[in-house]
Specification:
Number of domains: 3
Shape: elongated
Structural class: alpha+beta
CATH architecture of the largest domain: Orthogonal Bundle
Helix content: 25-40%
Number of helices: 8
CATH topology of the largest domain: Helix Hairpins
């Protein structure tokens, strides 16, 4: 694996603070974002490099490993364990002559573990390492995830066809096995983690599997009751209003909410909050009738 200088990619020094790294990433990410550079492969590649660099350097633990191990930072812990085992074995075999694990041994061992090519004596099944996991974000509208959605993602230059189940939630992360980076020394490929950002441009508010909406109710229907039509994702449905329905009271349309993730045919409910709207611009006749009602209620 070729060494990639993440500091150089972000244009910061190795002593840069977390704030400086974040600022540099945001500035460059805006510049090279695919939405601002449609069809520009060079910008797309640069944007991927920026994301990768930020993922490593913005995490304090990852940054320490990167600074210490360079291109092999992901395997630092495995290396330390293997190195310790090697040292113990060397010491056990050579303690009579008091031989130590030399710098040359250290270098050869490191190269043999992580593909440097200087030594092949330790390459084998025990040195296979899983490839890098990839992370991606997918932006969809609430209407998109009401039904099963076929999608095509481009990850590391490869197109991946996905079928996204209905009901996926905002912030949810799903894992796709084997769609990350290639493994090392014959190890398995990494995985792809997709985070969903669901934008809601509807009149409904989603809470879990339920949908909420406010409905304006005129004074006469709230007092006398009646029928109204309510919008859902499947069109309008008729709803019966009980007499003397109060302001901010609630009603429910069972099964008219959001699809339940990976449970085909199952839905949450539609929760309706009634907002009482008082009449305005009354005619003289209406005012007269309200006065009559006032007199009757006062008796």
């Amino acid at each position: 694996m070729e060494f990639i200088d993440y500091y150089k990619i972000l244009g910061v020094s190795k002593t840069a603070t977390e704030k400086e790294i974040k600022s540099a990433y945001r500035k460059l990410a805006r510049k090279y974002h695919p939405d601002l550079n449609p069809g520009n492969k060079s910008a797309e590649t640069k944007f991927k490099e920026l994301n990768e660099a930020n993922e490593v350097l913005s995490d304090s633990e990852n940054r320490k490993k990167y600074d210490k191990y360079g291109k092999d930072w992901k395997h630092g812990e495995e290396y330390e364990k293997a190195k310790q085992q090697h040292q113990e074995q060397q010491y056990s075999r050579n303690r009579s002559s008091q031989q130590d694990f030399s710098n040359q041994d250290y270098t050869d061992f490191f190269e043999s573990m992580f593909g440097g090519g200087k030594s092949s004596r330790n390459q084998g099944n025990s040195n296979r390492f899983k490839g890098q996991d990839y992370n991606a974000e997918l932006h969809l509208d609430l209407k998109d995830v009401y039904t099963i959605q076929p999608q095509i993602l481009t990850v590391d230059g490869k197109k991946i066809r996905l079928t996204i189940p209905a009901g996926v939630e905002n912030g949810q992360v799903i894992k796709i096995n084997g769609k990350g980076g290639l493994g090392m020394n014959g190890g398995p490929a990494g995985d792809l983690y997709i985070k969903f950002n669901i934008n809601n441009h509807t009149q409904f508010k989603r809470e879990g599997n339920d949908l909420h909406q406010h409905i304006d109710l005129d004074l006469y229907t709230s007092i006398l009751g009646g029928e109204i039509y309510v919008e859902t994702f499947n069109g309008k449905v008729k709803l019966q209003i009980k007499p003397e329905t109060k302001n901010d009271s609630k009603g429910k349309l069972k099964g008219k909410g959001f699809p339940i993730y990976k449970k085909e045919g199952e839905f949450g409910d539609m929760i309706i909050t009634y907002h009482l709207v008082l009449p305005t611009n009354l005619s003289e006749k209406e005012i007269e009738l309200f006065k009559e009602l006032q007199k009757i209620s006062a008796k």
